[in-house]
Write a structure and sequence with these properties.
Elements (H helix, E strand, L loop, with lengths): L21 E3 L5 H14 L4 E6 L3 H15 L4 E15 L2 E14 L2
Parallel strand pairs: 1-2
Antiparallel strand pairs: 2-4, 3-4
């Protein structure tokens, strides 16, 4: 996997290999992810990537909309939306899970 770069240089990766500008949506409360995005937008200088799969996709959309409408009011825009499918194999069976990645950019 290639490292993404911002204007300062390559983004540092977490020990798991996930870029530091990525917010992975899961089972935590919605406002936990909103807080993470707000902190990332205020401290980081690059794009923010919100990723989710399966049932968490609707929560990811809600998180982005709360950030855009309540906290940044026109200063945060969706630059790209990527959708896809991952095949997950478990116990001899495989199933398809939908994925989404919403890329956010802070306006100056």
């Amino acid at each position: 996997m290639a490292e993404k770069q911002n204007s300062v240089g390559p983004l540092p990766a977490r020990p798991s290999g996930i870029p530091s500008n990525a917010v992975l949506i899961g089972k935590k409360p919605l406002m936990a992810y909103v807080t993470a995005i707000v902190m990332q937008a205020n401290t980081g200088g690059g794009d923010i990537s919100v990723k989710a799969r399966g049932r968490a996709i609707s929560k990811a959309v809600d998180v982005v909309e709360v950030c855009r409408r309540r906290f940044f009011e026109g200063k945060l825009e969706v630059s790209d939306i990527l959708i896809g499918t991952e095949t997950i194999a478990s116990e001899g069976q495989s199933r398809n899970v939908s994925t989404i990645e919403i890329k956010l950019k802070k306006r100056d």
